[in-house]
Amino acid sequence: MNNFIYHNPTRIIFGKGMESETGAQAALLGKKVLLHYGGGSIKKNGVYDKVTASLKEAGVSFVEMGGVQPNPRLSLVREGIALSKKEGIDMILAVGGGSVIDSAKAIASGVLSGGDIWEYFTDATKVIERALPIGVVLTIPAAGSESSSSCVITNEDGWYKRGCGSAAFIPRFAVINPETNFTLPPFQTACGCVDIMAHLMERYFTKVENVDLSDRLIEAGLRTMLNFAPRAIRNPLDYDVRAEINWTGTLAHNNLLDRGRIGDWGSHQIEHELSAIYDIAHGAGLAVVFPAWMRYAYKNHKSRFVQFAVRVMDVDLSFDNQDRIIEEGIRRLESFFQSLGLATRLSQLDIGDDRLREMADKCRSAGNVLKLTPDDVYEIYKLAL
Amino acid sequence: MNNFIYHNPTRIIFGKGMESETGAQAALLGKKVLLHYGGGSIKKNGVYDKVTASLKEAGVSFVEMGGVQPNPRLSLVREGIALSKKEGIDMILAVGGGSVIDSAKAIASGVLSGGDIWEYFTDATKVIERALPIGVVLTIPAAGSESSSSCVITNEDGWYKRGCGSAAFIPRFAVINPETNFTLPPFQTACGCVDIMAHLMERYFTKVENVDLSDRLIEAGLRTMLNFAPRAIRNPLDYDVRAEINWTGTLAHNNLLDRGRIGDWGSHQIEHELSAIYDIAHGAGLAVVFPAWMRYAYKNHKSRFVQFAVRVMDVDLSFDNQDRIIEEGIRRLESFFQSLGLATRLSQLDIGDDRLREMADKCRSAGNVLKLTPDDVYEIYKLAL
Fold this sequence. Notes:
The structure is a homodimer of 385-residue chains.
Chain A: E1 4-14, H1 22-27, E2 32-36, H2 41-44, H3 47-57, E3 61-65, H4 74-87, E4 91-96, H5 98-112, H6 119-122, E5 134-138, E6 150-155, E7 160-165, E8 173-176, H7 186-204, H8 212-234, H9 239-251, H10 266-278, H11 282-297, H12 302-312, H13 322-339, H14 356-362, H15 374-383
Parallel strand pairs in A: 1-8, 2-3, 2-4, 4-5, 5-8
Antiparallel strand pairs in A: 6-7
């Protein structure tokens, strides 16, 4: 186990009707809030009304800025920064899923950072040290951004999707009411579940040894998702099912489960190029990329992929043939993604082989099990065709 | 799953040599520190020298107060409060295990609370809202007090051992270097491991349904302890073994694993009466009480005890006979405690039946699977004879 520091001060406020706590929490952090949201689904499902009523009741004034798109855009972030400065905003409240939260994080830091915010996403020597306090009302369990230190933004100028991490990004509070997921379409539910599983798997696939507790904690999360993701598709109004997925989604990405180990994150980088160029849902891209990455990378650390197959996917074949166990584990994972209604091949997403080399060359290197080169990324895309 | 709030801001600083961070962390919180410790083992194993050197290097002045005994005493807490007020202490640094940390918590709150500190441990209407900031250098993984909201103190006047909870008790930072456990005697290692397992099991045994993720997370902790506790006895100098136990011990009691559920805590109350009167180690008492409590309580919620036997203790008997599965699970747990060198019967601790009724009548009621009455407690003691 490696040395580590763990500090996650997000106050999680979880359960039925908890949106009513938003105003009281926001009032502790700011006087004038930027209320940031997406395409307006929160106005249809009642969340907007509950949150704004709670803010008003707590005497917190707010300025609204909706319009966040999936794969949130740098241009809107820049607008948000300008608006926040003009209005004297002192806190950002994100109401939505990962895209809205990440957009809010970039705005919150951009208001206090010198220079252009995009530099922090592209220049590894620049570190975000300050941000306005961020609060979250989560409506889609997926990105785990509600208590994470990470933020991913897409620059439309060249379609670069880039991530950035900072302790200042960790939200001060996150209100999570699983009831708000009842109206999510099955596709979005499925994509969210795959994103959660990917966050767990990126942490699971490591070359760091002697990490037994965190192995088992991650396996606990993955097995929970295997049980509950299909049930959320079948029974979208089952509160207890949605609750398990939400709580797993938060713990999958709040930095707890990779303490003492180094995650891989190769699949995330490979997927980012796909969703930047083709604007697909992140989870939909991960369902294609992850099995291909596993098939390409497993020879670098077979024991870990055997453990995944046995402990997570319940593969019960003789231990004499490791490759067979591993392949069966990957096949079951792929089949599971398909059972959620997702594609597991690029061709099923109408993505051909014409831009694979371009994406491979743009892809940021990453990886602990396998340190990716552009050629590796290219081969993984080909395996995913 | 029940609604819940989760907020644990302790900064965990984990790994080899991390004591050197103590001074820098303390300097963020105070100018004059009460350095609180136990019987002096930290002077033999080098921890005292490292911590004081780190404080000096960071320019933090400190006043020392050692002498904390296992089952920490109210009289020393009162001395600590008086000393802290006299010296103008603005932060308490606990260097030791759960007893030292709990003594530090009681002092930290006593300095700022009106009235006598013991009232907060006996009068449920009194709530501790403030405490001086608390830092920890942990030397014994067991109590989980290094990032918990709880505190247990023994009043020698009548030998009452009573617990109290407050968000103000949560330490601001905890330095955890598993190397400091290398010199722990096997008995103390074993007692610590049982305490950690008990914290997990108290949370596991609940009547709250639809708590699948936290079930699995707790099972992950328990299975880790089943694997590593015996190895720590056999190989006390194995860093990676000690590391797994430390990290499990912290997560077992930082309030994460019972979010959305209600723990039982009956066994803890029953054990508190034992260690208050007979001054035995808490973990040694739990190894006796828990199996007896399980045998007495399981009929109130059989499915949960079957799940424990199957998923934690790997019982592989036919599901047709639930009682047989449960009994085998309890037998294996008892046998595991014995394998650590611990007694599992009161008689093995030279405790007879003469004060059972007195302890049963003093015992605080608790329980979610079984709401304890004095008669229940009495019957459980008898089962443990």
